[in-house]
Amino acid sequence: MTGEPEGTAPARPDEPEAEPAFRRILIKLSGEALMGCEPYGIDPARVDAITREIDELARRGVEVALVVGAGNIYRGLAAAAAGMDRATADYSGMLATLLNCLTVQDALERRGAQTRVLSAITVSEVAEPYIRRRAIRHLEKGRVVIFACGTGNPFFTTDTAAALRALEIGAQAILMGKNGVDGVYDGDPREDPGASFLPALTHREAIERGLRVMDTTALSLCMDNELPIHVFGLDDERNIGRLVAGERVGTIISTPGRDA
Question: Is residue 243 within 8 Å of 233, Cβ to Cβ?
Fold first, then answer.
């Protein structure tokens, strides 16, 4: 008698992996997203999980850029509210983003990924200066590009930096990873248990309703250039891969007239 051993399913050829829904993306990670369950700083397990997903995307041919915030280390607005000069506080916050960027870079490279950190503030010992065409060339060569130090200007947030860089490099979408929430709500679900989840809305609605998704400058940039934003939770790091595979995850913010 021939054939498969009893109780063994017949072997099947591997199914081809689906084409990614995006060719080039920008992932915006808040500083808090790197904290995981820690009260501040960086959770190595969370960073490892996030970078595993990013590395897998890069290996599949998706061109990935990152902007990382610094809320886990320093907040310029909070320092300014405590009496510090706002511009000085913002520059301090920009430098704090560099610490997070180097952490993410190290985690990616330990997985074998090729990366480049491009900084809007000159720190030539640890990062290249930001040059748009250089960033695009790195992406075309399959390198994960990490943008550090925001826009390089005070009074602008890393949300605005994410929108600006995404438009400059021709990203098809911004993927915004959040810590502790799985998308956009009409209130703060951590303070208001009755807050309702919003699966989809327009950039204009987000601005007019004052939803704390991104700052108004960033939302306006995305609205004017019809750049979709996917807001999702990082409690399940697989959400990054699911989004790029074309699954509906979290909240999509888009402008009518463009396929998102």
Answer: no
For 162, the token pair is: 């994410």
Give ∠ CA 25-29-32 in degrees, rounded to 5: 170
Q: Which residues of 183-201 are buried (b: 16+ CB within 10 A; e: fewer)?
A: bbbeeebeeeeeeeebeeb
**Tokens 């590395």 map to which residue?**
55
Lookup: tokens for 57: 């995307």
**């909240």: which residue's tokens?**
251
Q: Given this model, what pLDDT does residue 102 score?
A: 97
Is the CB of residue 69 less than 8 Å from the CB of residue 158?
yes
Fold of 24-254: Carbamate kinase (3.40.1160)
Average pLDDT along the chain: 89
How does residue 18 score in pLDDT terms, banded at 50, 70 and 90? Answer: confident
Taking residue 32's Cβ as centre, other Cβ atoms within 10 Å add up to 18
Domain extents in the chain: 24-254
Q: Give me the sign of the Cα torsion angle 223, 98, 243, 61.
A: positive
For residues 24 and 175, what is the distance between their CA atoms, to the nearest angstrom?
11
pLDDT of residue 13: 47
∠ CA 136-257-168, nearest 5°, is 15
Cα-based distances in Å from 150 to 109, 168, 176: 22, 14, 15
| Rounded CA separation 211/17 (Å) | 37
